[in-house]
Amino acid sequence: MGPGALSAVLSALRLPTSPNLLIGLVVSDDAAVYQIDESTALVQTVDFFPPIVDDPYTFGAIAAANALSDVYAMGGRPITALSIAAFPDDLDPVILVAILQGGADKLAEAGAVLTGGHTVTDREPKFGLSVTGLVHPAQITRKGGAILGDRLLLTKPVGTGLITSAAKWDKVAPGDLAAAIASMLRLNRRAAELAAQVEIHAATDITGFGLLGHAAEVARASGAGLRLRCADVPLLPGAMGYARAGICPGGLDRNRQFLEADGYLRYADGVEEAYRLLLNDPQTSGGLLLALPPAAAEDLRRRCADSGQGCWDIGEVISGAGIDVIA
To answer: What is the average per-residue pLDDT within 229-248?
Structure first.
């Protein structure tokens, strides 16, 4: 669902709550957090979607990396997962085995285990995970908390939506698709571990609402504005070319319309239309977006450089509300 439709659905719900529920739908974030005791809280999330690549094993691994990302965004450590699979009756079950194995192997890479799951019959294959993690209540990284002067760091390039759409239309260069797949397969584990070593004010992961959509969630939750420099946003190989060619995934327009409808998103003169597409591009298994003090940002960038982990300074937290995108 697009951000506008989802917001309307959630606002109509009447839900029970608990004093142990630290983060739920009332204070929406990347995952729910339920406190068990003074030093332990559960982090829970779920995510699934149709195939975005042809190879079933790779699809399963990407779907798992994407689901795990929400736990990392909350500062948590994944421990278990349940699979969610929809599969047609007329496809070879060997394909489903490969999807499940890809997910299980990616979980093992994260130090978590697949403990079970549920399947249904559907005409279109779908796969994902419900992931449970652990976090100390004092170490939760929320979307809210960004303050004036914070730097905004991003840990993966953007463009997976445009590139996988180009692949569906048989218009992608093999090297561009390979780079996008490698990025989607890369866990946010190392980035989260390094971020935990410095002072973080706010965090989220970049997925279906695009970079600007998830940045807007940080801005709203923090009661602040953000300024993003589009020229400093890292792009996957080929992404700019596909944007300039007008190759866009379906969810991109919904993302743009939701943010641009009320002036919450503002583009400076000179921001190319291709950048407007890229920054709203729905991502699969995107990176972490972090808001942190300038000194901590420099510290984290050094740590990431020493570890071979990508990390780009793309903007800052400003006064006011909404998002300003400058060239």
So the answer is: 96
Claim to verify: residue 122 and residue 164 sit in the same structural domain: no
β-pairing, 322-326 with 265-267? Answer: parallel
Confidence bin at 218 (pLDDT 50/70/90): very high
Q: Which token pair is 56? A: 């079933």
Q: Which residue has the tokens 């992961």?
A: 205
**What are the Cα distances from residue 57, in Å, to 51, 94, 105, 202?**
10, 10, 9, 33
Alpha carbon distance 59, 50 (integer Å) = 9
For helices 3-11 and 251-260, the axis angle rounded to 10 degrees is 70
Torsion angles phi and psi, residue 248, rounded to 5: -135, 140
Confidence of residue 282 (pLDDT cuts 50, 70, 90): very high
Tally of domains within the chain: 2
Calculate the dihedral angle through the C-alpha atoms of 196, 210, 182, 294, rounding to the nearest 10 degrees.
-30
CATH code for the domain in which residue 280 is found: 3.90.650.10
Amino acid at 284: T
pLDDT band at 270 (very low <50, low <70, confident <90, very high): very high
For 56, residues 6+ apart whose C-beta sits below 8 A from its C-beta are 95, 96, 98, 99, 102
Alpha carbons 112 and 82: distance in angstroms, whole number: 11
Residue pointed to by tokens 């006064």: 319
Amino acid residing at 34: Y
DSSP state of 10: H
| pLDDT greater than 70 at residue 1 | no
